[in-house]
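On clarity, I found the account of how folds are encoded harder to follow than it need be. For illustration, here is how one protein appears when written out as sequence plus C-alpha cells:

:::
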Amino acid sequence: MSRRKADAERTREAILDAAETTFLVQGVSRTTLAHIAQEAGVTRGAIYWHFEDKAAVFDALLERVRLPLDGIVDDAVQRLGTTPVECLRDIAQRSLAGICHDLPLQRAATIVLHRCEKLEDKHPRICMITQLPKHAEAHVEALFEQALADGNLRADLTPASARRQFHGFLIGVCFDWLQDPQQYSLADECDAIVETLMRGLLVENTP
C-alpha cells in the first residue's frame, strides 16, 4: 500500500471513530458533518472525499462492526449436528457474548438501539444490528422445524413464530442492557437468560 493510500485509509478510520463518538453522545439526528469533522480533526471536505453524506458515514460505521450471525449459525449447526435445541442455545449464547465482549459492536448497537431518533428509524442499514440476515433466519427457523419434528417445540408455536420470539427476546435483552451496561453483568447472567429463553419456547423436560 502506498503512503498516500495508507494516509487516506487512516483518515477514513478517524472519521468513522469520530462519527461513533459523536453519535453516541449527541444521537444521530443531532450530529452534523461539522461535528464529526471537529471531533476527527479534519475538514468537512476531507469527509466528503470519503463519504457522500452523513448517511454514508452511518452505513460505513455499521458495516465495519457487523455481528457475524451467519457464521455463528453455520458454526453451531456444523459443530452440534442434528441436535437443534443445543444449536439454538449455542446461537443465543454466542450472540449475547458478542454484545458483551465486542466493544465496537456494543457501541454500534447502542447507537442503533438508543441513539437513532425517529428520523433514522427506517434507515436500511439498521437491520445489520436489529434483524437476522436471511441466511441465518432460514437456518434458525429450520432448527425450530426440526425441534417440532422431534416433539420439543411448544404445541402452540409454529417454527416461524418461535424464530420471531427467539430473535425478539435476544434483541429485547440487548436493548435493556445497553441502556446502562453497569446495571448488571450480562456476561455473568448470559447462561440463565438463555435458559429462560429456551424454556419459554420448548416443552417441559427438553434437555
About this structure: Residues 1-52 form a domain with the Arc Repressor Mutant, subunit A fold (CATH 1.10.10). DSSP finds eleven helices and no strands in the chain.
